Amino acid sequence: MDIIEDDPTLYLDCMVTEIANKTGIHVSINYVSKFLKKKNYTLKTIERRAMRLDAEDMQRFLDEIATIENADQIVMLDESRKDKNSARRRRAWSKKGKKAVLREFFGPSDFTINYTLLACADVNGFIEEACDIVIRDGTPDGNVDGARF
User: Fold this and answer.
1) Nearest to 10 by CA among 40, 46, 39
2) Which DSSP symbol is given to 142?
């Protein structure tokens, strides 16, 4: 089970190789699949979380949002980027009933086409006029800083 704990995104064939490398025991992909099922593991979509996620900040946000009486007053703005990590594995093994959460550091990329999507929405959906695509090319105009956000 250490193999899954170390890297829950491994494919079954990679697990077979890891088992052989760590224990010297050669097993089939079918055996690993049945073993994982017996141990209540399933393959799930990964929920990626930044390592710097802070429970105190989340609680402060929830406390502040709870003071708003009318949901029509809420406007959410968020950014999402596309880079070399966009093609990362999206599924991982996890116990039944538990989310497949992968904690990792998010850092800069060297992918040739990087862009950031700024999206804004309210209770009625996206506010198109407030959404923007920013090509991140290393120039000041391609950066999403606090002023632009």
Assistant:
1) 46
2) G
Q: What percent of the chain lies above the pLDDT cut of 70?
A: 75
- Residue 111: is its pLDDT beyond 50? no
Give per-residue pLDDT as tens, 30-72.
Answer: 999 999 999 998 888 877 766 666 778 888 889 998 999 998 8
Distance set, CA 134 to CA 69, 76, 106, 111, 115 (Å): 34, 18, 19, 15, 5
Residue 35 near residue 16, CB atoms below 8 Å: no
Structure-token pair, residue 129? 């006029």
Q: What angle do CA 32, 33, 38 make, to 5 degrees?
A: 95
Residue 94: count of CB within 10 angstroms of its CB = 21
C-alpha to C-alpha distances, 52 to 48, 97, 140, nearest whole angstrom: 12, 25, 26
First-to-final CA distance of the chain = 43
Distance CA 70, CA 75 (A): 11
pTM, two decimal places? 0.40
CB count within 10 Å of CB 8 equals 19
